[in-house]
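REQUEST FORM: STRUCTURE PREDICTION
Request ID: SP-0412
Submitted by: Lab K.M.
Chain count: 1
Length (residues): 309
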Amino acid sequence: MQKLKLGFRHIEAFRAVMSSNSMTNAARVMHTSQPQVSRLISQLESITAFPLFERNGSRLNPTQDGLRFHREVERTFAGLAELESVAANIRSFSAARLSIAAMPRLAGDLLVKVVAEFHAAHPDVLVSIHSGNAVNVEEWVRSGFCDTGLALLTGDAPHIRRETIATLRCVAVLPKDHPLCRLRRLKPAHFANQRFIAPTGESALRSTIDDVFAAGHVSRQIVAEASLGSSVCALVRTGMGISLVNPLAARDEFVNGGIEVRPFAVNIPSEVALLFPPYQAQTRLVSAFAQIARPVIREEMEVLNKMYT
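STATUS: Completed
RESULT:
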C-alpha cells in the first residue's frame, strides 16, 4: 500500500477545523463537503501517527499533540506570509539602489526629468547619479560601478552595450556679431581660414569634424581645444573663434548670451544612448528605468532637433 504524503490540503483542513472546532464549519470555509474534511483529517492523523483531536459527539477538541502541531503549522504559515512580503518588496524594488552614470550635459534637466518620472513609479528605489565625461561614463558602466549610463556619443563604443535613443546633428556656434551670423545655415566652405575652437584630439567628434573639412578641402586655423561643449562655447563667446558642438550644449550656452547658433549643412551625428554593462544580463530594475527613459529622451531630443533644422 502506498504511503500517504503530507499535502497542503491536509494542512488547510487542519487549520480550518482548529479555527472553527467543527468539521461542518471547516467544510463551509473550504467550499467542500464535511466527509471530505473528515477524510483529510483522518489521513493527516495517519501521516503524523498521533491523534490530533478528541471526538466528543459533534464537538472536536484538540489533543496536546494537536495543539503542539498547530503551533508549528502557524509558525510555518507566518514564515510563508513573510516570504510573500519579501516577494512583494522585491517586485516593487523596495530598498533597491540604482546607480546612473551620465555626462554633465545630460545629467541636468534631461536626466532629472527621467529620474523624477522613475521615482513616481518606483518611490522606494534610491537613485544615485554620477556625472563625468564620456570616458568616465563608459568605464563606470563597463566595470559595473554604475548600473546604466546616459551618454552623448560620436562614433563607436566597442566595449559596452549601447541603445541609441535619439540622434542629434551638430550645429555651428559663433560669437555674437560675427560676419557669418548673417547666414541662416553654414556649409563647410564658410569655415575656410576661420579661427576654429576644436574638440580635443582624442575625441571621436574631433576625428569626424576633421574628416568633414578634409573632404571639402577646407583649411581652418585651430586656435584652441576643449573637451566639453560648454568650454567650447565659452571660448567662442570670448571671440576667439567659431566651432561645431552638439545642440544640447549650444542650446544651454545660448541662454547665457554672447553666442549665435546656426544649423550646419553636413550631418555630424551625436547619439543620445543608454549604456549597459557588456557581460551582464539586464536587471528588472534597469529595464524599468530604460522603459521610462526612452519616451522622455525621444520627446526632448525631437524638440531640440526641430530648433536647428
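NOTES: The chain has a mean pLDDT of 88.
Reviewed by: T.R.
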